[in-house]
Amino acid sequence: MKNILSIIAVLFVCHNINSQIILPENPFDSFGNPSIRKPIEINRNGTHHQDIDINEGNYPPYPPIDPETDGEKYVFWVHGLNGDIGSWIRAADASQNNVTNGFPARKLKSVSVIDYTQDANLYGAAQQLGEIIENKRSDQLALGEDPTQNFIIGHSQGGVVTRALLHRDLCLNHTPVENLGYGGIITFGSPNQGARILNNKHLFNDMSVDMCKSLGAGPAEELSQKTVADLFIFKINVGDIVPVKDIVDKICTSFVGNLVDLAVMNQTPNITQSYYVGAPDITNINNCSDQDLVSFPKVAFYGIEPPEGLLFRTGAYFLKSPNEFDYFQANDDYFLTNAFIENKKKYDAAVAKWEYYYFLAQVERIQYCKLPNVLLDWPMCLSAKKREMQTLKIFNAYKQGQDWFNRVDDQYKTIIGAIDYTKTTQWYCECENVKTGQFTSTPVAGPGDCPPSSKNGIVCSPVEYTIFSQIKKDSDGVVLSESAMNIPYATAPPRKMYNSSHMQMRNDDNTKKALLEIYDGDVGPAYKTAKKN
What is the residue-wise DSSP string for 388-427? Predict the structure, then answer.
């Protein structure tokens, strides 16, 4: 999912920020259409969804006799969306060669030079993967080797392509398992039940508008006010806003120029239409109950990233490949988060500065506009009021940027499905005694149950209150855990990789542990692979 997640690094599409740009309202702050007025509350301390292994209790017992493991086998490494032959290079190399301590090489041949079309659907990609495997199978048969000892490891989309191959072979073509060129499949971070991010991809544009509008508001408002001579009473230099303005330029301009064009063009090639949540192809793959498929060895590994700072920890390994690190060393995913925090501090500082200037302007306005000063120097009172309003505008504008830093993670989680919402509404009849100021709010069944006024000077109006409560779900930063862990008829329990993000899981310490489990046969004897001498 490289290019759809390039948008993580980009975040957003916006080329210019100035005070004349008119942008639509932030869609993340608008829900529904109010009848009269509609106060909205978002309960951000919502419930945490617990992942459930639907296969629990149904795993077949291991065969009493392990298969032969002394012969050399092939392991096919399949890359994900817009990946390439280097996507698994560290793990593939370490599996075949003794290149790192604590990870003995195995009697296998890594096949990572695997590419497949992304312009077709899953089955078109599976056809190409099958041809590569069949060529190796022919070579092995000529040498008297057993191709059913081979297995496939697929990351992200690559795991879904692998499952499409299995579906084609066993459910559509009914190929006898002994005639296959592989005897097991393993998925890493694959959207086995569909990728919610594909269903919500349109929200990236909304997110981009919100980012550019919010981050650009403060610098734009401050620059527009620089032409007002009255502001120079505070001795503000244009250089004061450069650090914040640079942030806007880098995210809204530089990132766009480097990455957005690629993301917009390639983020959703045709193959992704096969595995959005509810897509016919992934649905058909999941619904097959052919007996050979049910018993065929298959297991899922899935990542769980802590929810705090999810967007930027995930985005770190879309900006920097985990394979740039040494074998299984892609463990630090905070380098982008730290930059994010530093930039947020600049907005916090700008908000604090303009809050202080606003306070000074209030003091000045009170001084000049009180009696008898206001009578003696009315123009100074008007000028002080103007300065007070101007500083308030700049303070509120920078506050928009500060607020964006606080909500961007939830926006991203909403797109990938890691935050969902339940909605509850309630009508109230709110009444005020215009004589005494007494106020009451009473729940009612609907707006018709609230009288508009009474003879006693009580004015009432119906108000609908809406509460959106968050439902929080685990993910690897791209794919929900509930999707990645769920291969129907899995033959071993799914294995959790805690603190491994979607791209990171190809070359971090958890990858090392996962591969050791695989080669030692802990997830099933079909994957057991002898160590090299």
Answer: HHHHHHHHHHHHHHHHHHHHHHHHHHHHHTSEEEEEEEEE
The model's confidence at residue 255, banded by pLDDT at 50, 70 and 90, is: very low
The DSSP call for residue 70 is: S
* pLDDT range class, residue 65, cuts 50, 70, 90: low
Which one has a higher pLDDT value, 522 or 71?
Answer: 522
Measuring CA to CA, how many Å separate 209 from each of 12, 22, 373, 414?
7, 10, 46, 16
**What residues form DSSP beta bridges with 459?**
432, 453
DSSP per-residue string spanning 27-43: GGG--S--SS---EEEE
Least reliable range by pLDDT among 60-69, 220-229, 372-381, 444-453: 60-69
Q: What distance in Å separates the CA atoms of residue 192 and residue 182, rounded to the nearest whole number?
A: 20
Nearest by Cα to 473 from 415, 395, 417: 417
The dihedral sign for the CA sequence 274, 279, 285, 286? positive
Q: Which residues contact 435 (CB under 8 A, 6 or more apart)?
A: 457
Write phi, then psi, for 452 (nearest 5 degrees). -70, -30
H or E element at residue 160: helix 157-166
Cis ω before 372 (30° cut-off from 0): yes
243 in helix, strand or coil? Answer: helix
What's the CA gap between 347 and 155, in Å, rounded? 38
Per-residue HEC secondary structure of 295-352 comes to HCCEEEEEEECCCCCHHHHHHHHHHCCHHHCCCCCCCCCCHHHHHHHHHHHHHHHHHH
User: Under a CB-based contact definition with an 8 Å cutoff, are residues 441 and 430 in contact?
Assistant: yes
| Selection from 50, 52, 29, 42 nearest residue 470 by Cα | 42
Residue 18 has pLDDT above 70, yes or no: no
Q: What angle do CA 14, 19, 25 make, to 5 degrees?
A: 60
List Cβ neighbours of 10 (8 Å cut-off, separation of 6 or more).
208, 255, 256, 259, 260, 263
pTM of the model: 0.83
CA 188/CA 443 separation, integer angstroms: 50
- pLDDT tens digit sequence for 388-425: 999 999 999 999 999 998 888 998 899 899 999 888 99
Residue 419 has φ and ψ, to the nearest 5°, of: -125, 125
Q: Strand (E) positions, 168-267?
A: 185-188
